[in-house]
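During data preparation, a discrete fold description was generated, and the record follows.
___
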Amino acid sequence: MYCLKKEDMFRIIKFFDGWNDTLLWSCLQGYMGNAWTDDIRDPRSVQIIIGDFCFFAGVPNIELVKNIPEYFSAQYIFMIPENDKWANLIKKEYKNNYERFMRYAIKKEPDVFNIEKLCSYIEKLPLEYSLRKIDREIYNKVKTEEWSKDLCSQFPSYNYFEKYGLGFVVYHNDKIVSGASSYTVYNEGIEIEIDTREEYRRKGLALACASKLILECLNRGLYPSWDAANRESVALAEKLGYHFEKEYATYSITL
């Protein structure tokens, strides 16, 4: 089993032909994440870990299914198999320690957004709230709390976030209560992360944040990709102009 260097990522691109997932692109393009294979020169099996997500492709390989690197510190990992053979290995290895659930892929349609409608969502933000771009101070703040850490968790430093990342938060008084940002980045765009404090949900805050982020992406020529963890996320995406594509099986492994 070998961990690939950035300059060797080209060797495994073929395994993900047809995978319309920007997290994979982010790793294959060398921005973030890591990849492993059974053979560097002639790979047959591939694993990519980026953020909390783990993808498998090629010939099913139990050693890759077992591979949870030492640096991985989260309490769970989401495994996404290419097919049922990989899924069966996951179930065999983790037995009663997994939960199968569905995630929801959202179509990637660059010309689907209604600019006026997005602007109206921002304008409807109640007066007691303020919308701010993520700067160094906010970057440091969101990483200290469990509910908001994933807004910047994949960027090891503010300098890296400033160079490649993008995001906005909503303040209520002096407290950050909601945010939308780049979970990951790739050449053509970002993968959106949305988080809101539980007691501040259903107030239109995430809608305003996401609208601002999408508009900024469009201004920069970037695509704001969306992948939904639940039906509520699908509903929010559709309100912003996206369209549902398909559901796919994911395995949550408790570590």
